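pasting Guanidinium exporter for the record, 105 residues
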Amino acid sequence: MSWVFLVIAGLLEAGWAIGLKYTHGFTKLVPSVLTILGIIASMYLLALAARTLPIGTAYAVWVGIGTFGTIVLGMTFLGEPVNAGRVFFLILLMVSIIGLKLTAH
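structre below
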């Protein structure tokens, strides 16, 4: 169950990271509230996952999923650049996340 919590926490991290753009410096109420709730939920699920997973692995996977998701969402919806280099390093990031999962005991 810890891995499920961790994956959801990582997805929420990507969501709140994108949400930061829409808060306009926390001056927009609804995006700000949703972003803050996303941060709280993401951290709570990370804390639950870290009860049984090594903290280094849990944190790295959480950040990795959040980074991967934020970049993909930025390229898909925010017009951020898509090029071979970015795609290569996204694949490398995903390989690293999977490797950490496979080697965690």
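The two ends are 14 Å apart (CA to CA).
The chain has one domain: 2-103.
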